[in-house]
Each structure stands twice: as C-alpha cells, then as structure tokens.
Specification:
Distance between the termini: 36 Å
CATH architecture of the largest domain: Up-down Bundle
Low-confidence stretches: none
Number of helices: 15
Number of domains: 2
CATH topology of the largest domain: Dehydroquinate synthase-like, alpha domain
Structural class: alpha/beta
Helix content: 40-55%
Bound molecules: fe (ii) ion
CATH class of the largest domain: Mainly Alpha
C-alpha cells in the first residue's frame, strides 16, 4: 500500500436548510466584504438571495458576480478579478456547480497573488495567502468543494488547466440537499455520471491509498444506489443527500489520488466538439474499465462495465462516439491530445497515444 500524508482542509457542514447558516460561518471566518461567485441559474433559483440576506443578517456586505459559463476560461477569470478588485473584497463564496466553485478559486489566485491564471497551472505556485472561501455546491457531481484544484481553460489555446494549491481549499463547504434540488434534469444526469466516474477512477489510480480507496468505495455505494432514483425525481431529498455526499466522497478521493484515463480521453472530446463533460465521460468510462481490468472493480460490482452502461442509459447519455458526431478521421488527433492530459499519468495501466486510439476506436 502506498505511503501518504492525508489532511482534510475543509470543514464539512451537511444538512437540509444549512445554507441559511452561511452568515454565521462567514462571521466566524471574519468576512466583511464578500464576492459571491454564482452562475446565473443560482439567481433564478433564489439561492443568491438566500446567501445575500444571510450575510446581511450578520452585517456582511456582499456582491454577486456571474459573468462566466459552464467551462470557465482565463478571460472570465480576469474579468472576475477586475470586478473583485474594484469592490475590495476580503472573502469569496462559490455558489453553484463546479464552474462557480472553480471560478471562485481561480479569481482568488490572481486577486491575491497577481499575474495571470496560467501562471498557477500545476500545484503549489502561490507565494501569498488566499482570501478565505466558503463553497456551496448546487449540483450533485463535480466534488470541487472537496478539492484544492480549479479547472480553467486557456482562452487562447482551449487547453484545460488544472490549477491547484493547498491554500485554494474552501475553509467551509456547506452541503445542503435542498439547494441541489433546483439543478436542471440535464445537469442531474451529466454531473451525477461524472461523480460516478470519479468514484470508479480514483479507486484504481497509481496514487490510490488506504484513505482514498475508502472514499471511492463509499462514494460508489451512495451514488450507485441513488442515481436512478434522483433521475426519476429531482426533488427526492434522500436521493439528493446520497448523491451530494457521494460527490463529496468522490471529490475527496480525487484530492488524494487523482484521476485516470477516462478523464484524459474525455477532455479532448469537450475541447474539440463541445461535448458536455459528463457525456464525454459516459461514452469512455465502461471501455476504460474493461481495458484496465483491475481486480478492485469487482468490489464495486460483479459486472462493472455492464452496470456503468445501464446507468448511462438510464441518464439518457449516448453510448458511442459516432452517435455524438465525432469524426472517425480525427481519432488520431484526439488520441495525441488525450495522451498529453495530466490525469492519464495516474491510470493504473500505462496510458499513451496508442492506448488512447485503441480506446476511442472501441467507443466509436
Ligand atoms: Fe469529472
């Protein structure tokens, strides 16, 4: 078993209605003027107003900002930095899906440490402390609230950069199932499947350890038993609670053990064809599991690739690259891009451009 050094950097608060307590946590952390990074859906759902009034109740000034989209890039981060600088904020709240939380972290890097977000690509590149942050996930998927990484695209090259630093962990993460009840059906499907892949991939990475594997197994147990129930009823609070905790466990597993070939193969599909992350994952994951053929997969399910296909079908996700409009003539080019992805390095079976091509062909 691998040697490791494990620390949970984020205080985890779970429970229905806990979003209303955000003012108290902010006060404890010394927030006075706060930037709320929340995608536009959060305002429509009423969550921005909930956070604004909870903070106001503690005498904390706050301003929402939503000028970014589902795949945040370096330009959006720069706009957010300018906005936050003018306000003179001393704290940040990320409210929403992975894009909101990643954007909150990324703005924090450049606001406190200067330069461009590209300067922080990799891990541990900051020299100064970041502003304290609270994360409130509103989708059941990415697990960004459990991680010190942000995924930001370079606006010029479209390369997805993983930007990480121990200082970028949220001080508090609030998991409130009622907040996730407002996620749209398509997000329920793609974000949920993404979380499932995080559980499956982290279980077998070369960096896996005793703690991360424990998280991966628990993530799978919760996600597998509740994904279909949540697809059937987006307001089922028990299913939401399972999915939310499952996503957190899977996110915490990534923090400890990284990801594998599935994410390496999915990223070029998103960059080239704009295929949603969860859909790109769904088309590749069963093939990667079959190709890796790790003994640990049996702990999850007797026929894991079969169960993964069943879950993707239940979510209405497509099962082949052809059905997604990917051109067969571009598979080699996509394979070269997949082999460059950082996460592929942690796949248990050595993964290169030739393996990527083999897997894309299987999935075609
Ligand atoms: Fe993912």
């Amino acid at each position: 078993m691998t040697a490791f050094d494990h620390l949970e950097r984020t205080r985890l608060v779970f429970g229905t209605g806990r979003i209303h307590k955000v003012g108290g946590f902010a006060r404890e952390l010394g927030f006075r003027r706060t930037l709320i990074v929340a995608d536009s859906g959060m305002e429509r759902a009423g969550h921005v107003m909930t956070v604004l009034s909870a903070l106001a109740g503690e005498g904390i000034e706050s301003t929402p900002w939503s000028q970014f989209d589902a795949n945040p890039d370096s330009r959006m981060v720069e706009r957010g930095r300018e906005f936050a600088e003018k306000l003179g904020v001393d704290s940040i709240i990320g409210l929403g899906g992975g894009s909101s939380m990643d954007c909150a972290k990324a703005i924090n890097f450049v606001l406190t440490n200067g330069g461009r977000i590209q300067d922080y690509w990799g891990y541990g590149k900051t020299t100064k402390p970041l502003l304290p942050m609270i994360g409130i996930p509103a989708t059941t998927g990415t697990g960004s609230e459990a991680q010190s990484h942000a995924l930001i695209s370079d606006a010029e090259t479209h390369v997805k950069m993983a930007i990480g630093d121990a200082r970028a962990a949220f001080a508090v993460a609030i998991l409130d199932p009622s907040v996730a009840a407002t996620q749209p059906p398509a997000v329920r499907a793609t974000a949920g499947y993404d979380a499932i892949s995080h559980a499956v991939e982290t279980l077998v990475t070369t960096k896996r350890n005793a703690v991360s594997q424990c998280y991966s197994r628990e993530a799978w147990r919760l996600l597998e038993r509740s994904f279909e129930r949540l697809l059937a009823d987006g307001n089922d609070l028990n299913a939401l609670a399972d999915m939310q905790m499952g996503s957190w466990f899977a996110g915490a597993a990534i923090e400890a053990s990284m990801l594998g070939a599935t994410h390496a193969l999915a990223n070029p599909l998103t960059a080239t064809y704009g295929i949603t992350h969860g859909q790109a994952i769904a088309v590749m994951l069963p093939h990667v599991v079959g190709w890796n053929a790790m003994a640990e997969y049996r702990e999850l399910h007797a026929d894991l690739p079969g169960r993964l296909r069943e879950l993707a079908a239940a979510a209405g996700l497509r099962g082949s690259l052809r059905a997604l409009g990917v051109e067969e003539g571009r598979l080699e080019e996509l394979s070269l891009a997949a082999a460059q992805q950082w996460t592929g390095k942690f796949n248990p079976r050595p993964f290169d451009a030739a393996s990527a091509l083999e897997l894309y062909r299987c999935a075609y």
